[in-house]
Specification:
Structural class: alpha/beta
CATH class of the largest domain: Alpha Beta
Largest sheet: 6 strands, parallel
Number of helices: 11
Number of strands: 6
Mean pLDDT: 85
Distance between the termini: 56 Å
Number of domains: 2
Order of helices and strands: EHEHEHEHEHEHHHHHH
Strand order of the largest sheet: 2-1-3-4-5-6
Shape: globular
CATH architecture of the largest domain: 3-Layer(aba) Sandwich
CATH superfamily of the largest domain: Response regulator
Strand content: 15-25%
Length: about 220
């Protein structure tokens, strides 16, 4: 019997054996409530609209160029609070694409189950976690000469919003310009503030100029 404080989890992975096996393992932990699983994100979206969760565990196969707004879409619709990449992918490019999409953790599938359990609990509590073997790649992304804030922190959509903020647009004006609801714009701004460690528009503009992502 799950308690009301259990972490509600949904699994998305196109490898049925892995997905079903992990679902069975996690279901044995009293702190986890496994709401369901799916082999594709469209089906997952339909299910989660009726039954939102605390966390989605998803394979990075879904983080293609066409689907790089997956996280943004699920988070803005309040279908989940956290998204965690669970993957075999160790390349810098796939890691970067997943990080840029707004995930809250990057865990390799060859980790021990006990490690995954701890990671899920830490991510749920608010921490950002990556597998230890990916830390070197994380450091490389932080120190490489390419625009770190753009590639690592700020999504393309968030950068659009930030530019419009600098141009003096209100939330409603930004929404009309980008054909998005005002609530969606507010969510984007909240994410921008969190990623940039700022608390208002002026600070965001100043840091954006400092980082070189605003002129």
């Amino acid at each position: 019997m799950k308690n009301e404080n259990s972490i509600r989890i949904f699994l998305i992975d196109n490898h049925a054996l892995f997905r079903k096996g992990l679902k069975a393992i996690l279901a044995d932990y009293p702190n986890f409530d496994i709401i369901g699983d799916s082999s594709n994100y469209l089906q997952a979206e339909s299910i989660l609209q009726e039954n939102p969760v605390d966390m989605i565990l998803i394979d990075t196969d879904f983080y293609t160029i066409k689907n790089n707004e997956f996280s943004e879409n699920f988070l803005n619709k309040n279908l989940t609070k956290k998204i965690v990449a669970l993957t075999f992918a160790k390349s810098k490019l796939e890691f970067l694409n997943a990080i840029k999409s707004g995930i809250h953790g990057y865990i390799l599938k060859d980790e021990e189950i006990e490690y995954l359990i701890v990671c899920i609990e830490k991510i749920h509590s608010g921490r950002f976690i990556v597998s230890e073997s990916m830390v070197d790649k994380l450091v490389e992304l932080l120190i490489q000469k390419s625009e770190f804030p753009i590639n690592f922190l700020i999504s393309d959509r968030e950068l659009e919003v930030l530019n419009l903020i600098q141009n003096g647009y209100s939330n409603s004006q930004i929404g009309k310009h980008l054909f998005l609801s005002e609530n969606t714009i507010k969510t984007h701004i909240k994410h921008i503030y969190k990623k940039m460690s700022v608390s208002n528009r002026r600070e965001a503009i100043e840091k954006g100029i400092l980082w070189g992502i605003l002129k």
